[in-house]
Amino acid sequence: MWIKLISPMTTARPMDSIWKTRMAPPLALLVLGSLTPDRHKVTLEDENIEKIRLDDRPDLVGITVKVDTAVRAFEIADRYRANGVRVVMGGIHATACPDDCVKHADSVVIGDAEEIWPILVEDAEQHSLKKIYRNSGTVDASRIPVPKWDMLNHGRYLFTNTLTIGRGCPWRCDFCYNSSPNIDSSYRTKSISQILDEISSLGTDHVMFIDDNFIGSPDFVRKLLPEFKRLGITWQTAVSTNIGLYDDILDMMADSGCKSLFIGFESVNQKNLLNCHKAQNKIEGYDATIEKIHKRGMLVNASLVFGFDGDDASVFPATLEWLVKNRVSTMTAHILTPYPGTVLFRKLEVEGRIIDRNLKHYNTAHAVFMPAKMSPRELESGYLKMYADFYSWINILRRLPISDSQIMAYLQFNLLYRKFGKQTSMLGSIFGMRRLAEFARRTSYPKWRKRDADEIVLLNGRTALTSLTTNR
Ligand code: B12
Ligand code: SF4
Description:
By secondary structure, this protein is α/β, with parallel strands linked by helices. The protein has 20 helices and 14 strands. The strands form three sheets. Strands 2-1-3-4-5-6 form a six-stranded parallel beta sheet, sandwiched between helices. A six-stranded parallel beta sheet has the order 7-10-11-12-13-14. Cobalamin is lined by residues 10, 13, 20, 23-28, 31-32, 62-64, 66-69, 88-93, 95-96, 109, 112-114, 117, 164, 176-177, 210, 212, 334, 339, 363-364.
């Protein structure tokens, strides 16, 4: 069979450039590529980097669906099905809201693909697809394969060095997709050798861990980090705010090449955090946590959410002041968004506060619900002003890192990615995103270089060559 996998167009926010939409490939589809038996041909089209064909006739189309891409995913699916091509949907939104997707697909996969995809492909071959596929239990992380990286046009993406050390998160915040009943967010890690093999398959010593929460198991991380040190990699990841409780892990992170941490602070109002069941975030510890990270030479990317019931218009200047005071390097702001399926969605639905059901607007740049203490317009304009103020010249200067070693990475993110992102990303289209990313890494992290397969095998000293030859 010919199986075509599709990633539909992301709905960019007003401040996003193509750096964002071409940031990284859809890892899920590369995983599906690896899970597909060799006798089938698998191809990938990502609408974020290329115009996709809709008039071809694969035997099966697989679409990954996120909330902001759902509308486009349905259009693509309807076109194919009108031509008699069978369509399967999976991914976060398909899992949280299978009933919406099933109207546009022959089959919907609920949850991880590792157990189901080989069964589904066989059913497709036998022309006996079922409407819904669901895992028999939590999928063990040992089943997660090395993604099939050779399906990609690497030059079109900013980063092709993404991986996870596991799946899930120990917490269940009301606004997060992890609070949806269909999402199996139980925290699981891959084995250390699986992770090292996956790092090897990337062919670089700068890697980005895109886990929900890298410190989901502090004990596991304590065993893993010495291996990173041995490999000599440079890396980045996302952690929850309780990282501030683990001085030893912070030491090990810095020592093993970690350069920056993305952290969901979400709000500087404790009541907001308690109301959305994000009780692990303790505001009184925020400043000390940031200081501990900075002292160890790592940057902080703060993720913030605006529009909680405790937020009035004063939340914007108060949060800005806190960010600048703590010299937070980068900020990703979001308007609180009730992803369908989450606890937050159900709460706002019951209260009759959902005012916009166009899922294209669920990209965290729109007020799709009625805020408690602001008008939707005030929330949207406060959010936009927050970006403008945080990335103003004066605040970029006021937030300059204390350590010289962080300055290049700081300026690149603040100026080239955020402030002048629309202009600089055009260079990426001309010269290739990957080349510019390599330039950025060389200047930010002087020790960075590409590694060839043999060198990585020597470093890893185990089964890496197998992964490289079979998966690249
Ligand atoms: C990396 C990442 C990004 C990257 C790269 C995105 C890309 N090209 O894929 C960047 C930074 C660009 C990004 C951007 C955004 N992101 Co994002 N992102 C993630 C993150 C952290 C990891 C995704 C990932 O690759 N996971 C690893 C893969 C292997 O897991 P997976 O996708 O779940 O796939 C498995 C199954 O779901 C299933 N599956 C998936 N697709 C398919 C398809 C078929 C056919 C089948 C059978 C199975 C299947 O099989 C896979 C293997 O088991 C997730 C959080 C998360 N843990 O998922 C958020 C997440 C997906 N992002 C989210 C959001 C909201 C966004 C933005 C809108 C944010 C913004 N304000 O701009 C944008 C735009 C999203 C978009 N359309 O791509 C939300 C989506 C919520 C929702 N209900 O859909 C998430 C869940 C974060 C969150 N906690 O809220 N994101
Ligand atoms: S800590 Fe982060 S990833 Fe985990 S449930 Fe909360 S918001 Fe989601």
